[in-house]
Amino acid sequence: MDTFTAMTDEELVVSYACGNNAAFDQLLERHKQSLYSYIFFTVRHNGLAEDIFQDTFIKAITTIKQGRYTETGKFKAWLMRIAHNLMIDYFRQRKNENTVSNDDFEPDLWNNASLSEDNVEVKMVHKQVLNDVRKLVDFLPESQREVLEMRYYNDLSFKEIADKTGVSINTALGRMRYAILNMRKMAEEHQMVLTVD
What is the pTM of this model? Predict the structure, then answer.
């Protein structure tokens, strides 16, 4: 690990992209405090800050592993920008969820389809999508299925998942990433549509 502490962020990114997970552990260790503080002071809520923090690193991992990282010499700024964009997305979504305005559509709120309960067909499609997702989850390797279920079904943080499974946060994040990629691949192979219009 001493070798990694002397490396620059960019050298660590390259090392991680080549498959050295310990390099990412060093990046996480190096930037977690300042990143978490930045997120927390913006959102002012521990649980939300932790979720955005974890989502930031998932996005970073995915981008690096896909070979799309191009911010040479600016890793920390790039990480902060990912977090910033995720916070903007979160607040934008909250605003949209909490706002009903007559300016956006005709005044007849009671007959607006977007504000009404789902009809039987939409409920059936939604139920089928959930069943399909469950089937895909069942086909995942045990380690990936375990992390995905803990995250989405039990609402555990990646730190809690890492503690419960006895692995590093980086390993838990990696397993989640592979679980999602594998589910997408299986869905494409079986021509499954996993969205509800």
Answer: 0.52
